[in-house]
Amino acid sequence: MSKESADIVEAILSLKPQGGIFKDYVFPVSVSLFSALMGGSIALMINAKQEVRKANQKKLQDTNELLFNVTKALNSLVTAKSNYYPVKYSTPSVRALRFPEILSKIQEINDDVSYCSYVRDIPTCNLTRTERLSRFYKRLRKIPLNRPSQEALGKSWRNLNRVSAMLGNYNLIIELINKRNKIDEAVREKLAPVIESKEISTEAQFDDAIHSCLSKKQYLNWIDLTEMLITTVDHTICEMDNFLKDFPDIAESNIDLLSIMSKSRLIRVNNDRPAYIELMKPVLTVDFVALGADFSVDPEQLKQRYTLNAWY
User: Fold this and answer.
1) What is the pTM of this model?
2) CB distance 280 to 238 below 8 Å
């Protein structure tokens, strides 16, 4: 073989790739594994974001349904109260007589608010840039976050016991209305002949006529249901009005609206009609001295029974 032919053969042989374990086995396997891990990680991240999005959408939908139900309930109570407001009498018997039968298709509300358990004692989502920087700084310095006191938290709508109590009082009102309507019908059947046969115009005359034809038990049940209904309606109306104003902002502070990727928000209700504002006022209180005489109970005890303290 000539020298030129040998050089050509040597050059061709030098072009043959050099084998090796890393090049032939480790590198291809590593690339495949890395690609699989990257693909799996990306899939998990996308799935996690979708789950977070669904969870926040569910929170938004459930809370909007609650707000809508409370709005309907409040409208029902305002309509019911407009039938007897204003109450111009303080004599227990006359108040009960002037209190009309309430005819309404009021439906109960589910008072289980466990789906609102995402509400925390402090905001966790949709923070401003300043708030995020402040929390980042405190986290670095291990400074505790500012949290409301137990007393302040108890008066806030972040306290779900308050929400549950409001819904429970609304359902109680429905029960009181149904019970009172039955007793009131029986009472008026007994009173009608007496009132029609006499010329009655003053509160004292009405009071005497009522006491003369009703048994003690029937009279006290009638009065008790009337005063309890008046008190509970006044209290619940104010609670629901306050709830509709404050709770949307509280709830949204614990719902990640950015993850939903839409402009969805919780509904807001702010009724400023003069008639509505007027009905927010409590009715004239009953004469507790006269009520105490009827029940043979200390008037202060009756004040506690027929006074529901506000949470705020």
Assistant:
1) 0.84
2) yes
